[in-house]
Amino acid sequence: MTYVLKSKNKSLELSKPIIMGILNATPDSFSDGGQFNTYETACQHADEMIAHGAQIIDIGGESTRPGAPDVSLEEELARVIPVIEHVSKKDVWISIDTSKPEVMKQAVEAGAHLINDVRALQEPGALEVAASLNVPVCLMHMQGTPRTMQTAPKYQDVIEDIAVFFEQRIKACIDAGIKREHIILDPGFGFGKTLEHNLTILKNQKAFHRFDLPVLIGLSRKSMFKHLLNRDVEERLAGSLAGAMISAQKGAHIIRVHDVAETVDVLTVVDVCQE
Ligand code: 7PM
């Protein structure tokens, strides 16, 4: 089954896994240390990821780091809109990583093709705005809120609990008028999950293929590699690449990463060895 995402007269074939490059337009990003927080550097970083083979650039202006301060609407717009305007001159998909309906609207008007919402369109007004914008949406699972999620994550069955959440959010989207072919699912590694939960999801991610929708996987530099490998954030490349390889072999459609060039190489090797 090959999925094709469509947005604004552009289409994206998901016959093999593609790369979403992470562009943090935040001054307090945990892994880039604020290095890419200026407009100029963000644009350069985007250009570099495009040159390395990213097919989607995921632009985010709100930090979801546990305990991070809330970002005002004005601040979030000021961070992301100029960068979207720059990237929209290139032949690449743009994803807007936000939970705020007004940011979704202005980002799509400025050129974004896809809405990536770690709150799965649960903020007031988000479903309605996403439906009216008529672009694909990524629904990510999170237990709790960014502030509290890592305190004591608990599941009856992590896979089945996430699947129930997906079922409810897919229904909410369809009821709001979002097209089924516009929905992408993401189990949300690290968002209210222990190391054990994350590893169960990594191993069993094919369970989410039951919905016949594309699956997005985001593992890059996450703290699961701190806990599993005892690595600081700048030492998590090998772990992240192994996670990307496993996800590709298990049929993930979109892989969200910081290290685009390295992950492209991994996916090329996986692709030539597919049976
Ligand atoms: C601090 C903690 C900073 C966590 C950044 C993060 C995902 C996402 C993020 C994901 C989708 C990160 C996360 N993670 N969107 N946004 N899936 N769809 O590590 O896994 O990038 S933010």
TrEMBL record:
<keyword id="KW-0289">Folate biosynthesis</keyword>
<comment type="function">
    <text>Catalyzes the condensation of para-aminobenzoate (pABA) with 6-hydroxymethyl-7,8-dihydropterin diphosphate (DHPt-PP) to form 7,8-dihydropteroate (H2Pte), the immediate precursor of folate derivatives.</text>
</comment>
<dbReference type="GO" id="GO:0005829">
    <property type="term" value="C:cytosol"/>
</dbReference>
<dbReference type="InterPro" id="IPR011005">
    <property type="entry name" value="Dihydropteroate_synth-like_sf"/>
</dbReference>
<dbReference type="GO" id="GO:0004156">
    <property type="term" value="F:dihydropteroate synthase activity"/>
</dbReference>
<feature type="domain" description="Pterin-binding">
    <location>
        <begin position="17"/>
        <end position="268"/>
    </location>
</feature>
<comment type="subunit">
    <text>Homodimer.</text>
</comment>
<comment type="pathway">
    <text>Cofactor biosynthesis; tetrahydrofolate biosynthesis; 7,8-dihydrofolate from 2-amino-4-hydroxy-6-hydroxymethyl-7,8-dihydropteridine diphosphate and 4-aminobenzoate: step 1/2.</text>
</comment>
<dbReference type="InterPro" id="IPR045031">
    <property type="entry name" value="DHP_synth-like"/>
</dbReference>
<dbReference type="Pfam" id="PF00809">
    <property type="entry name" value="Pterin_bind"/>
</dbReference>
<dbReference type="GO" id="GO:0046656">
    <property type="term" value="P:folic acid biosynthetic process"/>
</dbReference>
<dbReference type="GO" id="GO:0046654">
    <property type="term" value="P:tetrahydrofolate biosynthetic process"/>
</dbReference>
<dbReference type="InterPro" id="IPR000489">
    <property type="entry name" value="Pterin-binding_dom"/>
</dbReference>
<protein>
    <recommendedName>
        <fullName>Dihydropteroate synthase</fullName>
        <ecNumber>2.5.1.15</ecNumber>
    </recommendedName>
</protein>
<keyword id="KW-0460">Magnesium</keyword>
<comment type="similarity">
    <text>Belongs to the DHPS family.</text>
</comment>
<keyword id="KW-0808">Transferase</keyword>
<dbReference type="GO" id="GO:0046872">
    <property type="term" value="F:metal ion binding"/>
</dbReference>
<keyword id="KW-0479">Metal-binding</keyword>
<dbReference type="InterPro" id="IPR006390">
    <property type="entry name" value="DHP_synth_dom"/>
</dbReference>
